[in-house]
Amino acid sequence: MAEGYPHQGEIYLVRALKSIGDTKKRPAVVISINIRNQFSSTVLIVPFTTDLTGGETPTRILVPAGEGGLEANSLATCDNILAVRKTYLEHGPYGQVSPESLERIQGGIQVAIGMF
Predict the structure, then answer these.
(1) Are 71 and 108 in contact (CB under 8 A)?
(2) Number of folded domains in the chain?
(3) The domain containing residue 10 runs over which residues?
(4) What is the pLDDT of residues 6-58, one digit of tens each?
(5) pTM for the full model?
(6) Chain segment 50-109, per-residue pLDDT in tens
(7) How far apart are CA 31 and CA 17, in angstroms?
(8) For position 99, what pLDDT does the model report?
(9) Residue 66 to residue 73: CA distance in whole angstroms
(10) Residues 74, 27: contact at Cβ < 8 Å?
(11) What letters, b where the CB count within 10 A reaches 16 and e where it falls short, cover 77-114?
C-alpha cells in the first residue's frame, strides 16, 4: 500500500466474501476517496469478474488485461459496490487502473445507484 493505505484506483486481491456468496478471492478496485481510505478501517471496492458472458453494460465496465495488473480482460461490477475491512485486502496493490478506466467505473457506479 502506497503511503500506508489503499488509494483510489488501486487493484488488490480481496478475500472471498462469503456474506455475498462469493467463494473465491478476486481482484477489486478501490473506489473510495483517499482521505476516507486513510482514516477509515474500511474501503469501498468494486470487484472484477472474468466472466464476460453478458459483455460490457452501463454498470459492467471492461478493463483490459494488463491494466492495473489484471491477468485477463475483466468486468468491473459497478452494481456490486462493497465496503470491506482493509484487512480483507490480501495482496496488492498490483497496479492502478488508468484515469480513463476509473472515470468509466465511477460512471458505472452512478448508473447503478441512479445518479445520472
Answers:
(1) no
(2) 1
(3) 2-112
(4) 999 999 999 876 666 667 889 999 999 999 999 999 999 999 999 999 999 99
(5) 0.91
(6) 999 999 999 999 999 999 999 999 999 999 999 999 999 988 899 999 999 999 999 999
(7) 17
(8) 98
(9) 8
(10) yes
(11) bbebbbebeeebbeebbeebbeeebbebbebbbeebee
How far CA 63 is from CA of 15, 32, 60, 109, 114, in Å, comes to 21, 18, 10, 15, 22
CA angle 63, 69, 75 (to 5 degrees): 25
Grid coordinates belonging to 28: 477489486
- Three-state secondary structure call for residue 79: coil
Task: Enumerate the β-bridge partners of residue 44.
Answer: 83
Q: Where do we find the cell 452494481?
A: 79
CATH of residue 106's domain is 2.30.30.110
